[in-house]
Each structure stands twice: as structure tokens, then as C-alpha cells.
Write the C-alpha cells for this entry.
Amino acid sequence: MKTRCGWVKKGNSIYESYHDNEWGIIIKDDRAIFELFSLETQAAGLSWLTILQKKEGYRAVFHDFDIYIVARFNKEKIDTILKSDLIIRNRPKLEAIVENAKKMIEIIEEFGSLYNYFWGFINNKQIVNTIANYKNAPCTNEISDTITKDLKKRGFKFVGSVTVYAFMQACGMVDDHENSCFKRSK
């Protein structure tokens, strides 16, 4: 039997699959980074399980998170998306995905990729924390604070240090698997 991080609800196949196959795995693809970042912004004030349950719906209405298509969405497109039961219907958060897509394109043009931008903040070296119990894990750090300030300066919406840190964990910039977890970096 695999020992997983304590936040993974035993017997919950969605959480177990996410933990085992996605969370903390290094992502280099711009589309996948944009998707994860967008979903993290949607999670503000909600449980991550709620977002995971709606992930396929978000993929459907946001054209599999094609940054260049999403950046061209207009008010009418958002109005259409708001009618969908596939996603959480929150206009400001949905509009943030579109605005953030535009800003991410600018980052890609400036840095060559989203990976280059985000990983530049950690000198291209994964941070591995010692986590005995996930309840004592950090939810922000100086780097997430710095990234948040830069993103806000660039005009990003629905970003805060907690959201950015959760993104950093999810995309593999930070390994916060518990010490006993089978997915922990050795």
C-alpha cells in the first residue's frame, strides 16, 4: 500500500489520482502551465476538489486552455460560458482567465516560455521542503510573494501569494510531499 500525503483523502479516487499523477510533477509545456495557473485562480475561496471535479468542464469551455484562443475571448464568449454547468460560474474569475492569457502571451514573448519565466525565480532548481505533516507546510514563501508582486505589476488578476504558492507546488517548482510520501523527491 502506498503512503501518500495526509491531505489526500483515502479512497477518493480523484484526489489519489491527482496526487499520484499530477501534483508536484514538473510541467514545462506552456499550455499545461496556463491550464494549471488558471485552475489555481479559480480555486480562490473554494476547495481544490471542487476545481478538480470541474477540470474537464473548464477544458471544454476554454478550448483545452489554448492560450492564443482564450486571449481572444470577448464579453459575448464569457456570457456563453456563464450559461454552462460544466464550470463554476463566476464572471470576474472567468474574465481573469482571459486577461491572464493575454499577459501570459506577453511573458512567453519576453522569456521564451512560461516555464522560463516561473523557474527563473528559483534559478531553475526545484525547492524541496522537509514536511513531516502537511498541516505544518507553508502556504506562501518569499518567492511566491515576489512572483505575486511581479504578476500583479504585469496586470494579472486573481493572484495572491497563497494561490501562487499552490501553483508552485502543483507544477513542481516546490516539492512539498510529506517526508513519508512515496512521491517525495529523494
Observations:
- The longest strand covers residues 127-128.
- The chain has a mean pLDDT of 96.
- The radius of gyration is 16 Å.
